[in-house]
Amino acid sequence: MERIWLKSYPPGVPADINPDEYKSLVELFETSVGKYGERPAFNNMGRTIRFAELDRMSRDFGAWLQARGLPRGARVALMMPNCLQYPVAMFGVLRAGDTVVNVNPLYTARELEYQLRDSGAEAIVILENFAHVLQEVLARTPIRHIVVTSLGELLGLKGLLVNLVVRKLKKMVPAYELPGAISFKNALNEGRDKPLDTPALGHDDIAFLQYTGGTTGVSKGAMLLHRNVIAALLQYKAWLSPLMGEERAVIITALPLYHIFSLTVNCLVMMVVGGENVLITNPRDIPGFVKELAKHRYSMISGVNTLFNALLNHPDFARLDFSALRLAVGGGMAVQKAVAERWKQVTGSPIIEGYGLTETAPSATANPLNVTTFTGAIGVPMPSTEVVLRDDDNRDLPLGQAGEICIRGPQVMAGYWQRPAETAEVLGKDGFLHTGDIGVMDEKGFIRVVDRKKDMIVVSGFKVFPNEIEQVVAMLPGVLECAVIGVPDEHSGEVPKVFVVKKDPQLTEQDVLEHCRKELTGYKRPKYVEFRAELPKTNVGKILRRALRDEKKAAFQSS
């Protein structure tokens, strides 16, 4: 295959990276903390931990896990927003030779139970705000070891005030009972006097079980091996080096670290280059977010379109000092042209879009960092990455012709956890991952996404699949049939809309929305409900979501 995109690489970006440079993420981590020990690694609510502190605390947590008898490769769930405990726990799990299972802290009991059971997680670190959800399902999961932490636990004296506000004034911590649970600090204290014996990890050990809907169906754990994540980190490092050089990077981390985009691009890439993550725990609090931005001279920020748009619409954002800002990275969902142009006007820095999936850790394509204007493209394949566009018969298509984006490279997952049949559906024998997205490549190797092959909905960068929502809505006794599609939304890019055929004439829109509120986490909940006498179907009775999408698309375009 001729890699025509290489001619679009900026000077200094190599055509290939060498994942064999490190045997495991633990070796890479130990190299970085040895090199950057006194540099700030993570900052949250005014408290900074340096790489040397991260080294010590993660060692202690890993030792605690091993002392609890967790074997090599055991799955450990992390259910926290952006806080200092997350990187400490995450690196501790890896150093113990175990596998990280990232869990969205906003999951409902049903969603949490599914992921814990499917992954076989034996231990969990959970923020106290969500402990009541774990209590509800604990008996039906394999969890044997529980660490409960608070937002302020690693913040020093300020943490006492933070916890007071959270627990008393805002009443954000519902009562819970988890017998045998231990605090995060106590786990670190117990591990401090115990040995850590990191096994000889290699490229084929599983570092993360990162849950995703994939390109179809229910949530599945993408098996990201140490090799996959090392490759992604070295690809991003190669992409950044010509722009950043030896300059110390400070990145604003507002997207949750449990999401693959922020986990890799922010948390792990900064570890490799000795940069600092400024963790934003609640990015929905835009006034508070803007005040926090005013305290830092940051060189990078990552986000999704909705986040950039929300910042731009706050009156104080434009008054900030952007003189140190070198790069804004957009991912997770398409960046709208109007938002990108306004961002450049306000900050002086362009938003550089990239593209990837959980299954690619998420490195796949990116716009060259010497691009100064919004391109509308997802960029070109990254080093050591091949991209082809294929038709429904798996044949490569010529340039300029739309086809399914297929990706091959060292960052592509090993497969879905305990799902060989579904792995075979997306990973070809030739190593190409079928993404389900339809794109077009031009003569310079730049790719544009033009459509989706599957029914996936993207809400503020999070994948939502109609099947799951339809199954939940169908649980309502008053529902005869239902179908879910994504419809355009100014804030989130897309939101789910459910079409319902009533079985009970008394069923109301509020009934449906209230039921979904109990069963689905926020971004999965339908924003709109439309009742219909019947739904479009094929001649064998299969509901035609595409007909509903086409109908709504036409109505949207004509409005």
Low-confidence spans: none
- Largest sheet features: 9 strands, mixed
> In angstroms, what separates the terminal alpha carbons?
45 Å
Total of domains:
3
Q: In percent terms, what proportion of residues is strand?
A: 15-25%
Keywords, please?
nine-stranded mixed sheet, eight-stranded mixed sheet, 559 residues, 3 domains, single chain, 16 helices, Rossmann fold, Luciferase, domain 3, alpha/beta, GMP Synthetase, Chain A, domain 3
What does this structure look like?
With 559 residues, the chain is of the alpha/beta class. The chain folds into 3 domains: 4-13 and 24-381, 3-Layer(aba) Sandwich (Rossmann fold); 386-452, Luciferase, Domain 3 (Luciferase, domain 3, Roll), CATH 2.30.38.10; 459-558, 2-Layer Sandwich (GMP Synthetase, Chain A, domain 3), CATH 3.30.300. The strands form 5 sheets. Strands 2-1-11-10-12-13-14-15-16 form a 9-stranded mixed β-sheet. Strand 12, helix 11 and strand 13 (327-330) form a beta-alpha-beta unit. Helix 1 (25-36) runs antiparallel to helix 2 and helix 11 (305-312) packs across helix 12 (337-347). The protein is globular. The model has no long low-confidence stretch (mean pLDDT 93).
Topology overview:
Elements: H1 25-36, E1 40-44, E2 47-50, H2 51-67, E3 75-79, H3 85-95, E4 99-102, H4 109-119, E5 123-127, H5 131-137, E6 145-149, H6 157-169, E7 182-183, H7 184-192, E8 206-212, E9 220-225, H8 226-244, E10 250-253, H9 260-273, E11 276-279, H10 286-293, E12 300-303, H11 305-312, E13 327-330, H12 337-347, E14 351-355, E15 365-366, E16 380-381, E17 386-390, E18 403-408, E19 415-416, H13 420-426, E20 433-441, E21 447-452, E22 457-459, E23 462-464, H14 466-473, E24 479-489, E25 493-502, H15 509-519, E26 528-531, H16 545-558
Parallel strand pairs: 1-11, 3-4, 3-5, 4-8, 5-6, 6-7, 10-11, 10-12, 12-13, 13-14, 25-26
Antiparallel strand pairs: 1-2, 8-9, 9-19, 14-15, 15-16, 17-18, 18-20, 20-21, 22-23, 24-25
Helix pairs in contact: 1-2, 2-3, 2-7, 4-5, 8-9, 11-12
